Every structure is written in C-alpha cells, then in structure tokens.
Amino acid sequence: MAPTLSTAQLSNPAEVTEFVVNKGNGVKGLSETGLRALPDQYIQPFEERLINKFVNETDEAIPVIDMSNPDESKVAEAICNAAEKWGFFQVINHGVPLEVLDNVKAATHRFFNLPVEEKSKFTKENSLSTNVRFGTSFSPRAEKALEWKDYLSLFFVSEAEAEQYWPDVCRNEALEYMNKSKTMVRKLLEYLGKNLNVKELDETKESLFMGSIRVNLNYYPVCPNPDLTVGVGRHSDVSSLTILLQDQIGGLHVRSLSSGNWVHVPPVPGSFVINIGDAMQILSNGRYKSVEHRVLANGNNNRISVPIFVNPKPESVIGPLPEVTANGEEPIYRDIVYSDYVRYFFKKAHDGKKTVDFAKI
Ligand SMILES: COc1cc(/C=C/C(=O)SCCNC(=O)CCNC(=O)[C@H](O)C(C)(C)COP(=O)(O)OP(=O)(O)OC[C@H]2O[C@@H](n3cnc4c(N)ncnc43)[C@H](O)[C@@H]2OP(=O)(O)O)ccc1O
Ligand SMILES: O=C(O)CCC(=O)C(=O)O
Ligand SMILES: [Fe+2]
Questions:
Q1: Within the chain, which residues score under 70 in pLDDT?
Q2: Ligand 2 atom closest to Cα of 235?
Q3: Ligand 2 contacts CB of residue 210 (under 6 A)
Q4: Atom 9 of ligand 2 has which residue's CA nearest to it?
Q5: Which ligand 2 atom sits closest to the C-alpha of 265?
Q6: Is the C-beta atom of 278 inside 6 A of ligand 2?
Q7: Predicted confidence (pLDDT) per residue in 149-163, tens digit
Q8: Alpha carbon distance 74, 63 (integer Å)
Q9: CB-based neighbours (< 5 A) of ligand 3, an ion
Q10: What per-residue confidence (pLDDT) applies to 7?
Q11: Is the minimum distance from the CB of 120 to ligand 1 under 6 angstroms?
Q12: Contacts of 59 (CB under 8 A, 6+ apart)
C-alpha cells in the first residue's frame, strides 16, 4: 500500500525529513504519497535550478564513440580527445551484453520496489556492512536543499562479502554488470594511459586506476515541481572513470568545457555514458577533465541510472603520474591519500568542481 502523509505533515519540514531520511521511505515514498507540491527543503536556490531555456539553446552534443570500429587507433584517439575536450562521451558496441544491462535495470526496479521495511535494512544505521548503504539525496546533513534522488551504494570487497551483505534482489545482477564491464574499462584505461605515456596497464597501474569499484543504483521518482529542484546537483565524480547506464527517460546534463552551456546527454539504447573523474584529472595533471554534471527532476516519469565508479584503492596515494611530469611539466596537484579525498567529497553538499581544489598545490 502507498505510504501516506497528511497535508499538515507534508508542510512540516521536520516530519518530511523524518519520513524520507530517518524512516527510510526516501523520495520514492514521498512521491508515492501523491503530494501536489514540493516540500520546502527540496527547493533549490534559483541559480542551481536547470532552466530549460538555457539548455535547449545549444546544439552541442557529447561524442558518441563506436568501440567496435576495427581501426583501434581511431577509437583510442576519439576517446582521448573526448576525455580532454569534454570529460564525457558515450560508447556503443562496447562488448557488454545487452542482457546484462537489462538485468541490472530490472534489478534496480526490484530493489526500489521493495517495501520500506526491507530497504531500511540497508540504511547507514541498519546495514550490516559499511559497504552497503541505502540513502537519499547526497549528504542530507550537510545540504541546505535536498536532492530528489534515492540510491543504493554497493562498494565491492569480494564475491563472498557481496554474497553475505548485498541485497538478494539485485546482488547477482549488480555483480554480473560490474564483472562484465571490466574488459571495456581496461580497454578505456589502456587508451587513456597510452596517451599519458603509461606503457601498459600492469598490476601497479591497474590498482591505481581501478583498484576499487562502487556500483550505485539510483532512483529518481516523479517529482511534483521538477523546475524547483534537482535530481542531482552540480558535481564532478571523484572516481578515475565512471561508467553510467541510464534508462530511456533522460535528464543528465553536462557542462560544456568550451562554451559553459549545459548539454543534455540523450539516452542511446545499449550505450554507456563514460566520464572522467577527479582522480583521473589529478593523475593526468589536468590533461583529462572531470566535468560538472547534474540531473533534472522529472514531473512525469520515474528514472533510474546505474553508475559504476571505478576508483583508486582507498589507501592509494594519488598525484600527477611520473610519466606525465617526466618532461618537466609542473605538477598542479599534490599527492593525497585517496580515501582522504573521498571523505572530503562526502562531507559536504554537492558544490560543482570544488572538491578538486582540495588537491591543488
Ligand atoms: C552523485 O551522487 C552520489 C554519489 C555517491 C557516490 C559516489 C562515489 O562513490 S564515487 C567513488 C568513491 N570512491 C570510493 O568509494 C572508493 C574509496 N572509498 C573509500 O575511500 C572509503 O570507502 C570512504 C568512501 C572514504 C568511506 O570510508 P569510511 O570513512 O570508512 O566510511 P564512513 O565513515 O562510512 O563514511 C564517511 C562519510 O562519507 C559518507 N559516505 C560514505 N559512503 C557513502 C556513500 N556510498 N554514499 C554517500 N555517502 C557516503 C557518509 O556521509 C559518511 O559520513 P557520516 O556522517 O554518514 O558518517 C553516493 C551518493 C550520491 O548521491
Ligand atoms: O543519474 C545520472 O544520470 C547521473 C548520476 C551521477 O551523476 C552520479 O551518480 O554521480
Ligand atoms: Fe556523477
């Protein structure tokens, strides 16, 4: 049965927070009450709202790259070029079976359709593992305005740990999705690395670029006043690389490095959206760019997305690679323990590209 909140409760911010954040109903539960107006704590400051007028004025588009192209050097060139100029691109014919993508999307719906008592077993307070977390918004305690999104975040430690702690309804599908994507991820990292004079993706480099993996299942329910809020606010990812599977609804926007315009990332069936994260920006000494992006709330449709955050190991020290600075190029970032960087990211609300300043010299 759909959850209920009285009109009086809906206009009381403390009651809304209790229902959404503390009781684990999420914004999905809130949306399902059939509320007509957006509760005050979701109203974003004017400058953070994505006004369609500005978005639609541009005909810019992020590159779509066909990875089945037999001319590998052309593919590598297109990927490195996109990583430098856009920080974002889509890939098609990437080799990950479409069935795996369909399965993880279905599993995402299955998880979020569980009753609140089941999902709440995975909130920070209740989860039996710190590597599994069901939550809402991004950092509710630090945010002045909340974001219209629920998520399940799964940090991979081992198959055995996942077997024990990840939710049954999505575990196998999330693992298969992560495992089947690794060949493509290695290929992308090989191309990006070669362009930085990294000869091969040996064990050390693999651990640095892809030493830890987190899969998030994101759910953006229908929103009563989508123009007043956001699904996800402006941010760059702290990963090395993010592999994102989105459904057919759309709403992801990327800030163009050349024009500053917000550019929509149209859903392309069977594709992945790939973006450079802060760790890669730091390792490449700014050659590759992690780029601001954000997600619109939607007044008509529920939306899901499934990012794989490919990261350094938490204990890795990241800084500009020696291969990049060997030619005398000045490092613009200091060496930093990756988990310190990620903790700093999680401690604050989304704030565009500001996290990376933490690592600047
Ligand atoms: C865009 O909207 C998002 C994004 C995300 C997630 C994005 C990513 O995960 S990007 C990849 C991040 N990299 C890694 O996870 C690999 C490296 N991991 C680590 O170094 C550590 O696991 C750690 C992340 C630093 C956490 O270590 P630890 O200090 O042992 O753990 P906690 O005390 O539990 O966390 C500290 C603090 O961080 C927040 N937090 C932790 N995990 C998450 C999570 N998965 N999602 C959201 N927030 C998280 C949390 O606020 C903790 O503070 P508390 O005050 O709650 O104690 C996720 C969600 C989005 O909306
Ligand atoms: O849902 C999306 O399209 C993007 C989500 C995102 O940016 C993230 O989870 O970091
Ligand atoms: Fe992101």
A1: 1-2, 51-58
A2: 7
A3: no
A4: 307
A5: 3
A6: no
A7: 999 999 999 999 999
A8: 13
A9: 237
A10: 80
A11: no
A12: none
Distance of CA 55 to the CA centre of its chain: 21
The answer to whether 185 and 172 are in contact (CB under 8 A) is: no
* 111: nearest Cα among 129, 135, 88, 90: 135
The CA-to-CA distance between both ends of the chain, in Å, stands at 54
Could you tell me the sign of the dihedral formed by the alpha carbons of 186, 188, 193, 199, in that order? positive
For residue 213, report the phi and psi dihedrals to the nearest 5 degrees. -135, 135
Nearest to 50 by CA among 137, 152, 147: 147
The response to whether residue 343 sits with its C-beta less than 6 Å from ligand 1 reads yes
Task: Return all residues near 245 (Cβ < 8 A) that are at least 6 apart.
Answer: 101, 104, 105, 177, 272, 273, 305, 306, 307
Instruction: DSSP letter for 235, please.
Output: E
Interface ipTM: 0.94
Q: Would you say the CB of residue 246 lies under 6 angstroms from ligand 2?
A: yes
* Integer Cα distance of 121 and 133 in angstroms: 9
As a whole number of angstroms, the distance between CA 272 and CA 293 comes to 16
- Angle (CA) 299 15 113, round 5°: 50
- Residue found under tokens 């000045």: 330
Q: How many residues does the chain have?
A: 361
| Whether the model pTM is above 0.90 | yes
Number of neighbouring beta carbons within 10 Å of residue 178: 22
Kindly state the helix (H) or strand (E) to which residue 338 belongs, with its residue range: helix 338-347
Ligand 1: centre distance to CA 199 (Å)? 32
What's domain 64-98+171-359's superfamily in CATH? B-lactam Antibiotic, Isopenicillin N Synthase; Chain (2.60.120.330)
Token pair of 150, please?
């629920």
CB atoms within 10 A of CB 276: 27
Q: CA distances (Å), 262 to each of 62, 148, 303, 355, in order?
A: 11, 19, 20, 20
Phi, psi (5° rounding) for residue 352? 65, -130
Taking CA atoms only, the protein residue closest to ligand 2 atom 8 is 307
C-alpha–C-alpha distance, residues 193 and 199, integer Å:
7
